[in-house]
Amino acid sequence: MHIRILLLQAANVLEAKENSGAQKTTATDVALENFKQKWELFRVACDQAEEFVESVKQRIGSECLVDEATGSLAGKSGQAGTTGLPPISAVRLEQMSKAVRWLVIELQHGSGTAAVSAHHPSAPFDARFTEDAAQ
Predict the structure, then answer these.
(1) Overall domain count for the chain
(2) Domain assignment of residue 27, given as a range
(3) Cα distances (Å, whole numbers) of residue 26 to 8, 10, 19
(4) Is residue 104 domain-resident?
């Protein structure tokens, strides 16, 4: 819908310019201003669509990761897991995900504490897992 309106406004600009003999007139100025407004609306709609697509991609990726890590994927497809690794709990996966996110944020902000945080993560860990008990 937005592209159709944008094209219509572009055609209006060209028509106004043709009717004025390629001279700058009030009609061409108005047509050009209308086109600029529609162009901005189109850009905003494109940006929103891109953000939506990115959020859906991230959600799908997260859901697939959780399914793979918890073994839910194997149960859904009726096949054995292909990684050969035992499934982990969704809670444990969320804890690890938070720790990774904190590290990424620290690295993006140029913090020198990322290496320290890797050894002493701020996210709580589940003591039921032996790899956490060693930390």
Answers:
(1) 1
(2) 1-63
(3) 19, 16, 12
(4) no
